[in-house]
Amino acid sequence: MAAPENDLNKALELARLKKKHLEEILNITIKQSEVLSADKAEQLLSYIEDRQKLIDAIKVLDEEFTPIFNEIGEQLPLNGHDAVLDDGSDEYNLSVQLLAEIDAQKELLKAIYDLEQKNQKQVMAVIEEVKSKMSGISRAKRGYKAYKQPNQYMGGIFIDKRE
pTM value? Predict the structure, then answer.
């Protein structure tokens, strides 16, 4: 039964690495929130690039993790903490650790999602503010042009015809 143990070790290693990446994404998302609050949009782009690199790394990890986890699921029931029988073996300990890592990942994803929703609301508020400022500028520009146009003299017309 060494194969399930090797798979469990590999899956646990990948799960821990994914958790580390998720923690980094959460930190970057927190930094993005701070940048949005401080109106420092130029730093936002670098944070977005860093996040995307981490998301791509997680995608690669997931592609490697999924077949291993499916294989483990066929060999051991990993449907939940109670589904794995406590027989004191290394497989049991590894499976409990793996399930704990997956639970931690879920909590991190929820925290990231909640913060990301808050950040999106802040971005939309900034966009609306910029739109209103641009609209005001456009109105002011039209008004300025109307007053600064050169007078076009078309010649005089004599209207009063007194006799």
Answer: 0.71
